[in-house]
Structure prediction request, 581 residues.
Amino acid sequence: MTSTTSPARAVAAVTLLLAVAAAHLLVSGQPLGAITGLLDGAADGQAEKIVWELGVPRLLTALLTGAALGVAGYVLQATLRNSLAAPEFSGVNPGAVLGILGGLTLGLFPADSAAGALLAALAGGALGGGLTWLLSAGRDPAGLVVHGLLGSALLAGLTTMLLAYQPSRFGNALRWLIGSVEGRVWEHLAFASWWIAGGIAVAWACSGMLAVLSPSDDHAASLGLHPGLGRAIALTLAIALTAGAASLAGAIAFVGLAAPHVARRLGGRVRTVAVVGAIALAGADSLAQLAGQLLDGTHRLGIPTGVITALAGAAVLIRLGRSQ
Amino acid sequence: MSVKVEDLHFSYATRPVLTGIDLTVEPGEFLALVGVNGCGKSTLLRLIAGLLEPSSGKILLSGADLKSLSRRQVAQRLAVLHQSLPPVPALTVRQLVRQGRYPHQGPFGLLRESDSMDEALELAGVAHLADRVLDTLSGGERQRVRLALAVAQNTGILLLDEPTAHLDIRHQLEVLDLVRTLREIRGLTVVTVLHELDHAARFAERIVALHEGRVWADGEPKHVITPELLADVFGVAGRVVTDELHGSPRCLLDAAL
Prediction:
């Protein structure tokens, strides 16, 4: 990014974010007056309260989760030097989901505890990432993705066993398995939002390190970065961001895989990928809400956002794959 | 900056590669390392760059023991042009060259533009390519960009591992010419591994021939490049003539021995 194009990019990013945010709030089915009414700084009346208590937190959850997954994917792809690296393919995201479901099943934290979910996601994500790390120890970092897929499959199997053990919990588990930003309120966001914002800030501060690490270990070492140390910092960051995202929205797929591709095509780095991820997930959730309204009454849960990201992400990747 | 190598030994597992190398490169010298594949010339370069740990022996950069320097301190003193730079999707020339500032500024500094970066792009003659994606450039252009990265790193020593590999003859000459120019402008100490003996003889002031883990010959091109070198080190019967225009020795190769 050269200095001449930066302001234009910033304006474009803010405009797009605002547009997606507005669309997201509009498709929630509440009247326009309830949304604009909030601009006076107070939630008066039933409709405004619904938007403030449900609509806005849901929007923020989608934006933050999308940004976190996008940045986590970017960090993983740069560090592991593989454009197929992503939170969901490195054992981190499946581990985080297993952590949350395991914690809930064992009753380690109550179902409405945001901090409990985050801690469980962190532990699970670190376990999943650690498993991948162990499987691929001493091998080429690019091969980590293959072992990540193996580790992810293993963790998903464990999650399935957990559910089979207590099938009655399956309904509640579904939102974590597929990924959904529905039903998140301010309390859920209280800590996770700072966690994710902090993680993205650290990633931004580390963009120089990530750039130096991207080509090869020799390249990084010759520029003064100990590659093992750099990789450890980057992977810790990816786990922290993925766990933050998973603790809010479960296993949202493909944002972490596709957003970095889009950001790189735009010539951007950490900030760009955060914006792309945020827009992608808020957009996907808008579609999910629309689709949920079309199928009104048939599904108690509505359409989980994770379904939309999985479909859209697959389509984007196929296009990317063909055009390369 | 000078490079001093004292009684250096190195083994890969149980296979000894270097068995007692002594070498002093004076500040501003242009030295070429030659030898057959696997003779340890790239290994020696990596040892000097601090990318490998010697089994025994010492390496000094301007008198400072390499072991006592941090990775960052080493990167402030010497730049390395490795044989290859693996592709990074969508990486632009400017983004790559900016990485040369990393050892000086740390991760935060890379967020800023820097004057020395523009200077590096100019010196290497790649300013017009600054916004191009690296993977779309030709081999010769890529090498120039990588030299710009080394210049941006602003070190006293430049190590090159076969900088002309996979280039056509015109770009081979261009790249070596650029190395020579950069060395003159920046007062760089240059140590390069070269395959092509004629290039070594033409561009380097001093040639070190490695053979069986040791320094077989060390001196001015006209003293090192001899029929004996061709026979004993490279296993080739050949003659050595003098290039009248440049005054450098040239090899005429006759047959494999």
